[in-house]
Amino acid sequence: MKKIRQSLRWIAQNRLYLLTGIALSALITGCFFTSTRQTGSVALAAIPDEVDYNFHIRPILSDNCYKCHGPDASKREADLGLDTEAGAYAALKDNPSLHGIKPGDPLKSAVWLRITSKDTAEVMPPPNSNLKLTERQITLIEKWIKQGAKFKPHWAFIPPQLTKLPEVADEDWPRNEIDHYTLAKMNEVGLEPSPESDKERLLKRVSLDLTGLPPSLDLQKRFMNDPSENAYEKVVDELLKSRHYGEKMALQWLDVARYADSHGYQDDGLRTMWPWRDWVIHAFNQNYGYDKFLTWQLAGDLLKGPNGTPPTKEMMLATGFNRNHKITQEGGVIDEEYRIEYVTDRTNTFGKTFLALTYECAKCHDHKYDPILQKDYYSAFAFFNQVPEKGLVGTIDASFADPPNLKITDQDVDDLLRFINKKDTASVMVMVMKDQDTLRKTHILSRGNYDQPAKEVVAAMPTFIMPFDAKKYAQNRLGLARWMTDPKNPLTARVFVNRMWQEFFGRGLVKTVGDFGMQGELPSHPELLDWLAVDFRTHNWDMKRLVKQIVLSATYRQSAVITKDKLAKDPENVYLSHAPRLRLPAELVRDMVLTSSGLLNPEIGGPSVKPYQPKGVWEVASSGRGSLARYVQDHGTALYRRGMYVFIKRTVPPPSMLMFDASNRDQCEVKRSRTNTPLQALAMLNDPMVLESARVLAEKLMLEKTSSDEKIEKAFRLILCRTPKSKELTVLQNYYADEKTTFAAAPKKVANLLAVGETPPAKVADKPATAALMQTLLMLYNLEETIML
Amino acid sequence: MNEFIENRLTVNRRHFLGKAAAGIGGLALGSLLVPDLFRASDDETDGLPLGVAHFAPKAKRVIYLFQNGAPSQYESFEYKPMLNKLAGQDLPASIRNGQRLTGMTANQTKFPLVGSHFQFQQYGQSGMWMSELFPNIANIVDDICMIKTMNTEAINHDPALTFLQTGAQQGNRPSMGAWVSYGLGSDNKNLPAFSVLLSRGKGNGQGVYSKLWTNGFLDSTHQGVVFSSGEDPILYLNNPEGTDRTSRRKMLDNLAELNNMAYDDFGDPEIKAKVQQYEMAYRMQTAVPELTDLSKEPDHIVKLYGPECLVPGTFAANCLLARKLSEAGVRFVQLYHQGWDQHGNMVGEMPLQAKDTDRASAALITDLKQRGLLDETLVIWGGEFGRTNYSQGTATKDNYGRDHHPRAYCTWMAGGGVKPGTVYGETDEFGYNVVRDPVHTHDFHATIMHLMGLNHERLTYKHLGRRYRLTDIAGTVLPGLIA
Asked: How confident is the model at residue B44, as a pLDDT?
């Protein structure tokens, strides 16, 4: 049986050469490079037999031609638009014997003549654009014209369709539908899946992915000792039930929602939006359907409560999503300029978060690449333009929550809003949404300027996505939410499942998670994306179900080992033939250190905290005004809260977070970069939070009646979440012994080293040994693997 | 130089190895000097030659002495005796010509012109006018190019600062230093390409924000790194109490051994990169304090910058530190000095602000010049906009204030290929409007990029479908500023 499977795999791998010969392999090579299409290597790839508009041609036209021959009519040169079939096929105005594109006939196609012209005055793109087509691109266009120059609608605007589950060579490998799609792709490009990850590493990965916390020793033990078939699934269910699941899921949403604890401009005063953050955690933990999650945040204030009552306070609170934008407190600003700025931010955030479209590009002119007209921009803007608000409510500390706002009292927390971690009896104000009684007129703003209103528009969404039928949908945010969650909306489900995929694989199926438009990348697995989207929507937008499907897949469970062959064939792991090795997000680096040392305070929600921070970071940048002019550090258990609760003052975000690529929460962000820098090394080696963790864990272990080897091994399990190999242990033991000798002769050093942090010292007799163990643990914290998934 | 670049390569070596293996092949030595070629971020650049100038640069490095809050041009470099003559009279509507006003003066019914309380005189061979508040800058007028016609679109601090530093009033775009870091990389293996120094004067301050030195959508390796001359010159640089260098070395050696074992298991080039980042961190621990220690500066240098240069966190100390960082190869050193927002009490605050900055600014030019570095170092001095020629509130006999004015203000530059001993542009007799040679923020950026050997239209980064650049969709290089 095994042999048969192996030979099937071999056939799958070599199918290309066996069955279809060079031509198809060339096509695959062409697709293989879609993720790196801007590099020189593309030029080397062969030309496919059948040129596809969506995959081969539109990216070239969009990137090189649309700027002057695209959707923006005001900037269209020579009256030639190449973004639509009609525009491209039309005869040229000044030379009717030529067409922009004449299907079948390159010589009658101005496009081909111009891109191949040797005359610098004629050639397209013009030299001053700094753009140049490659030979391959020119050949592709020629072939496409010869083959009939067929246009197709943009993939993202066609509603997702279910396709037949692809057949795979190795039918034993898939664990669920996801795997059929990924394996079929691997088969296609000659890759093979990796073996399943060892249990220890798999547990670490899934625990961090679902709760943001490393697995406890107890969980490690239970899982390792559970031989049952569904041991892994049991763990997954347990993690999905953990109240920390909501925190982990909320983390990416806080980036998207640009959540912060200060207003963001200039003096940058305090705001109190944290009850909204507590709601997000709650919503994920309660597993609200994504349709509800979306609707409440966009339009909770327009919903009816139970039995037709006004919206509940929870519904109101959810709308804080739209008020997380920055707000100015700079004396002297022009009110309307900033009010418009806020509406703009809401509109852009909406476009990027829910539609993955670069709506903001159409604020000042028609979109250069996507069919979003300036009129469409302000039609969307109109939904968010009804808030009874001011650009400037007052200067620093005038308000922690500009109106419209919601007052949350003790009573509310006792009754309905139990998830809010309110610390004292004072009520707390949160900014929320409200529409004013009389409709505020919305105008197109010429060049995006607040003081240059032009034609009036009404609230609507562009037809190319899905018609916004004013009879079906109210022309307000609630109508907008209904339109978003309509089964026919082509984007809503796709955009969300794609971002969830990115959470687990580090890369979306559409790599440009914030841009599903013409300039965005094409999906690597279009059928899988559609399957996930349809499946998600038709199962009540069930987020936990989606997450569970992903982590139960064989694709997710693969080992992260990267073979030379895979690295060579698919360096970005587009085809998912191994698990990704990803550095933890900034907040989870902190969580990992605090959890393994036992210092973590697992409390959920509440006002953000101010842990250790290098001296003067706020002060040196501050204007000196307001309650946040100075950093007043917390003490006690507040020092050990999770990373997501570290206070974010927007103008000076926590430095240790920024170093690890956290968002500065200035604007909606759908993807963080993952860098690896010397500043990160310095932080891991010298940040008092890490040092204190090492010290406290060392003291704890010293108080246990175990050998030094056992102590080191236990620490290894806590920090690396796996059993050390003997050669690893040897290095650690030798290092420990060596350090112990050194410290025995240097009592002052020992005292200094152990003095770090505010946790009172434990009564350990052997201080030099404690210091040596602390150094050993610090080394473990600094291992590359420690903060990797 | 190569070591730093090598380090930058390892930042994304996984990507690099992958691509090389995938058949790019033929990597010329030149491409190894390209810091971002192998970046693994979301959107990639179009293979423009990063890490090398587009053409021969005039300036290799920039030191930007940003005067945060908007120093008044009328009390510093813009001599307008007409304002003294017409003092108390209303600004003619024909001159204001529809200019929007900030909320500070929007409700004012009168706009009484007010002249400088301080005396002006001509200096140097160029005969440049200078107020008595800047006697030291007056001594170097023949080395500087004074722009009289800077103009911006914003009228409030936050958007104006952000516009000047990032080319956009809103938008979390990369700042100028980040663009230069991205385009040219660093010249020093142990220092970041973009460094930031902060200080605060005695006048009304407006704060600074980390978005002014943000990498925006570029990799965070291009983020400005805040330095100081104090005990902790950059965050987390110092070993903890009780840990010395030998002890650190031992830990790093063991760490590398363990990490290499993991590499053998996983084959992930990121692991190797990590080991190298730890090595660079270790080197920074000696290289940075050596550089930021100002206590060993010779007497003649202390004399030049003034005794304040030994007090960490002062503008003088930051000027001296800027020179040292720049000399060591830091591509872009950005200073911010707060306190220039004189809505009132111009007479009281302006001399204090001038005193804090005048001597050290001039000293920096002199120092660079005597080291033969001025030619290749571009120094810029200026704020985010100008101030009104009329008084905010009532002008009394002894005091007055000025509101924000975006249409014309002064900034000076020196070295790095700018025309020395020159006044560029001209305003009307009221100093209110540009009459000749305007310098818009985008033009200013385009010209600085040009001096650095970068074509501002070609230094782009594709992000979410669009090619962004520092100058957005505008900007003209101004040859009149260039020597």
From this structure: 39
Q: A384-402 burial by CB neighbour count: b if 16+ within 10 A, else e? A: bbbbebebbbebbeebbbb
User: Which residues of chain B from 56 to 115 reach within 8 Å of chain A, CB to CB?
Assistant: 100, 102-104, 106
Q: With CB atoms and an 8 Å threshold, state whether A334 touches B262.
A: no
Residue B103 banded pLDDT, cuts 50, 70, 90? confident
Q: What is chain A's mean pLDDT, rounded?
A: 91
Higher local confidence (pLDDT), A367 or A15: A367
Q: Check CB contact of B24 with chain A, cutoff 8 Å.
A: yes
Q: How far apart are CA A599 and CA A699, in angstroms?
A: 12
State the Cα torsion A156-A157-A158-A163 to the nearest 10°.
Answer: 20
Left (φ > 0), alpha (ψ -120 to 50) or beta: where does B124 sit?
A: left
Identity at A720, one-letter amino acid code? L
CB contact under 8 A, B42 and A511: yes
Q: What is the mean pLDDT of residues A653-664?
A: 93
Confidence of residue B224 (pLDDT cuts 50, 70, 90): very high
Nearest CA in chain A to B22: A568
Residue-level pLDDT at A45: 56
Q: Sort out which chain A residues have CB atoms less than 8 A from B274's CB and list them.
A: 676, 681, 784
If contacts are CB pairs under 8 Å, which of residues 273-332 in chain B contact chain A? 273-275, 277-278, 280-281, 284-285, 313
pLDDT of residue B49: 55
Instruction: Please name the amino acid found at residue A638.
Output: A
The first and second tokens of residue A455, run together, are 């034609």
Q: What is the mean pLDDT of residues A429-450?
A: 96
Is there a contact between A358 and B466 if contact means CB atoms under 8 Å apart?
A: yes
pLDDT, tens digit, for every residue of A515-554?
999 889 899 999 999 999 999 999 999 999 999 999 999 9
Q: Are strands B386-391 and B61-67 parallel, antiparallel or unpaired?
A: unpaired
**Closest residue in chain B to residue A368, using alpha carbons only:** B466
**Is ipTM beyond 0.85?**
yes
Residue B124: both structure tokens together: 């140097």
Say yes or no to pLDDT of B2 above 70.
Answer: no
Query: Parallel, antiparallel, or unpaired: how do β-strands B439-440 and B144-151 relate?
Result: parallel
State residue B66 phi and psi, 5-degree precision: -80, 130
Q: Give the mean model confidence (pLDDT) for residues A752-766.
A: 96
Give the torsion sign (CA, B431, B437, B442, B443).
negative
Structure tokens that stand for A361 in this block: 């590009």
CATH classification number, B41-229+294-481, choose in 3.40.720, 2.40.50, 3.90.320, 3.30.420: 3.40.720
What pLDDT does residue B395 have?
Answer: 92
| Average of per-residue pLDDT across A341-362 | 96
Q: How many CA atoms lie within 13 A of A260 on its CB side?
A: 26
Question: Is any Cβ of chain A less than 8 angstroms from the Cβ of B265?
Answer: yes
Chain A residue with minimum CA distance to B14: A571
Does B14 contact A at CB distance below 8 Å? yes
Q: Where are the domains of chain B?
A: 41-229+294-481, 243-292
Burial of A787 (0-12, 13-18, 19+ CB in 10 A): buried
Tell me the HSE value of B408 on the side-chain side, using a 13 A CA sphere: 26
Question: How much is the pLDDT for A55?
Answer: 83
pLDDT in tens, A611-633: 999 998 999 888 889 999 999 99
- Residues whose CB falls within 8 Å of the CB of residue B237, separated by 6 or more in sequence, listed in order: A682, A686, B284, B285, B288, B289
Half-sphere exposure of A730 (CA within 13 A, CB side): 5
